[in-house]
Amino acid sequence: MFELLGLSPELFALFVAFGFMVGVFFGFFGMGGSFLVTPALLILGYPTPVAIGSSMAFVFGTAVIATLKHHDAGQVDYRLGALMFVGITVGIELGSRLVFGLEMLGIASVVVGVAYVLLLAAIGILFTRSAMNDEADGDEADERGDDADSEGAAGDAPDEDVPEIARKIKSYKIPPMMTLADGSKASLWTISGVGGGVGLISGFLGVGGGFVRMPAIYYVIGTSLAAAVGTSLFGGLMSGAVGAFTYGRAGVIDIGIVTALLLGSALGARIGSGATAYVDEDDVTIYFGLMLLTASLAVALGEVSAWLAMPVLDRISFVLLIGSALFVCAVILYHGALAVRERRDVTPSA
Amino acid sequence: MTGAELLPGVSPTVTALAVIGLVLVEAALLYAVYGVLEDKLAPAVFKRIQRI
């Protein structure tokens, strides 16, 4: 039978379509690679090392494409990414040691599962609340009229993109201070702490960590959301390369799967990355928060499925995870199309 | 098709580097090809969306 890199044409097309969805997600939010691909490959019956290894290689490839696209828009802080990577590497080592320690006590699976569910839920609540508060603030600002605009404080504009919690953290100026790409300053201790914390969670949960890395850059280090996405993608590129090398040495990366996924994701990542320039973050952030909450429920169902040996819950978990991601992907494309129709790019407010 | 199947008898490190290199080349090629397509097709797609 005719095969493309060891895959049937139907399966190849399925991976291209799935890759497109993940690419849009990855390009827009700077996360969602291994988080979506690994469970999909596991459900399709691939062995765990093949699923994780292929997912890591795919994340690396998509991160290269999405980072290049964000680089064109000047949304990648390479120095911040590189500084964080040092902390992330140390954190991953500590996280994996913690898991081995818990395994000796026989409670690793339960603790990791519960931590994953709680973390997804916490980040989901954080994003949803933040989006709702921003919406309320936006309404109040609209009621106040154009008074604020007349002050013309162009230098304050980037600060308005930074969440309140990050502004508070930034106000504690503990030396040495590092200058970020947008000209603002952040303590090296904060950057290292965030890198270490993200790495710890990544190593502890055995995930790529984009869903922690991007919010951590945005909420703790205090960059704009676009810069957080671009820098998180750069981090994903580096950690993806390390993961792909590790699993590549074991010879478990399926090149057919990675190629098919990349064919779709390369286009999706372009559209997702491009959409960040058109789509108002507030329009989508709330759906992202709700998606993380749904993902938390999906992971919880997956854990319960394993404990109760009920595969049907695993299927429901998969449908919830992919369904919610597909919905948010459609929301991004819809808002992108709306923004293009309104020609926001051609008629800037300034 | 895994890296080990693609390059039988080669050391694991070389296999891993070959796979990473292949993914990197694929990603760069796709970025370039889709970039050219974007430049050529984007104006027409934008116009069509605005007309809907």
The residue-averaged pLDDT of chain A reads 79
The number of domains of chain A: 1
Q: Strand order, biggest sheet of chain A?
A: 1-2
Kindly estimate the percentage of residues of chain A that lie in beta strands according to DSSP: under 5%
Question: Pairing-aware structural class of the strands and helices of chain A?
Answer: mainly alpha
Q: How many helical elements of chain B?
A: 2
Overall geometry of chain A comes to globular
**N-end to C-end Cα span of chain A:** 59 Å
Number of domains of chain B: 1
End-to-end gap of chain B: 43 Å
Spans of chain B of at least 5 consecutive residues whose pLDDT stays below 50 are none
Strand content of chain B: under 5%
What does this structure look like?
The complex is a heterodimer of chains A (350) and B (52). Chain A has one domain. Chain A is 78% helix and 2% strand. Chain A is built from 14 helices and 2 strands. Chain A has a two-stranded antiparallel sheet with strand order 1-2. In chain A, α3 (48-72) packs antiparallel against α11 (225-249), α4 crosses α9 (188-205) and α5 (108-144) runs antiparallel to α13 (281-308). The longest helix of chain A is centred in the middle third of the chain and has 37 residues, at 108-144. Mean pLDDT of chain A is 79; it is low at 145-157 and 346-350. Chain B has one domain. Helices cover 85% and strands 0% of the residues of chain B. Chain B has 52 residues and is an all-alpha fold. The longest helix of chain B is centred in the middle third of the chain and has 40 residues, at 12-51. The chains are: A mainly alpha (350), B mainly alpha (52). The interface between A and B is medium-sized, with 37 and 29 residues.
